[in-house]
């Protein structure tokens, strides 16, 4: 089960046992045996780089994890479960009802971690809603170390949980390319 991000420091404990701390550097990430199978994606915008890893399984669904670094600094982590049927992905298979169910799953997961009734028990999403209104429902928590939110991106066609550390993104944008 996903047991983080921690309220105290933003450490994320993935279901497969991988731990991602706010102080993780890109070099430490590349050197760690847990990340040997990570796929990198630089999108032609160095020193920004993203790494994609498997986070294990939550409630029977695979958890995809994307870490965003600006040079050595971990800026954010995106987490997402895949509720689509198996098969190739394209804009022709994109479905707002599935995106709504994914957003509802993510919202339920975050509520189980941070909500008023959070008790640390195993997570089970139960029946998720396919109501497209969910896609516009803001769900977020702010902490001294950063912010966690669930978001649907209609332009990019994805739904994810984002863990953002402090003002690192804004600072990196201001620093510009190196």
Low-confidence stretches: none
State the shape: globular
Over the alpha carbons, how many angstroms does the gyration radius reach? 16 Å
**What is the strand tally?**
9
Describe how the helices and strands are arranged.
Elements: E1 12-13, E2 19-20, H1 26-31, E3 39-41, E4 48-58, E5 61-70, E6 73-81, H2 96-114, E7 139-143, E8 146-153, E9 158-165, H3 168-175
Antiparallel strand pairs: 1-2, 3-4, 4-5, 5-6, 6-9, 7-8, 8-9
Structure description:
- The chain has 178 residues and is of the alpha+beta class.
- The protein has one domain (12-175).
- 19% of the residues lie in helices and 33% in strands.
- The protein contains 3 helices and 9 strands; from the N terminus they run E-E-H-E-E-E-E-H-E-E-E-H.
- A hairpin with a 6-residue loop joins strand 3 (39-41) and strand 4.
- The longest helix has 19 residues, at 96-114.
- The model has no long low-confidence stretch (mean pLDDT 87).
Jot down its keywords:
alpha+beta, 178 residues, 9 strands, 33% strand
Quick structural summary:
This protein has about 180 residues and is of the alpha+beta class.
């Amino acid at each position: 089960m996903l047991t983080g991000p921690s309220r105290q420091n933003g450490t994320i404990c993935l279901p497969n046992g991988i731990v991602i701390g706010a102080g993780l550097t890109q070099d430490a990430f590349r050197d760690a045996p847990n990340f040997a199978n990570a796929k990198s994606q630089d999108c032609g915008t160095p020193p920004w780089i993203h790494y994609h890893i498997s986070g294990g399984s939550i409630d029977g669904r695979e958890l995809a994890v994307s870490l965003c670094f600006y040079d050595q600094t971990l800026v954010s982590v995106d987490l997402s479960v895949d509720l689509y049927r198996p098969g190739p992905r394209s804009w022709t298979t994109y479905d707002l009802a599935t995106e709504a169910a994914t957003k509802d799953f993510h919202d339920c997961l975050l509520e189980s971690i941070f909500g008023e009734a959070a008790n640390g028990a195993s997570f089970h999403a139960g029946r998720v809603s396919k109501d497209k209104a969910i896609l516009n429902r803001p769900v977020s928590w702010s902490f001294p170390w950063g912010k966690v939110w669930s978001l649907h991106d209609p332009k990019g066609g994805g739904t994810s949980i984002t863990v953002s550390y402090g003002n690192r993104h804004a600072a990196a944008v201001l620093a510009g390319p190196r």
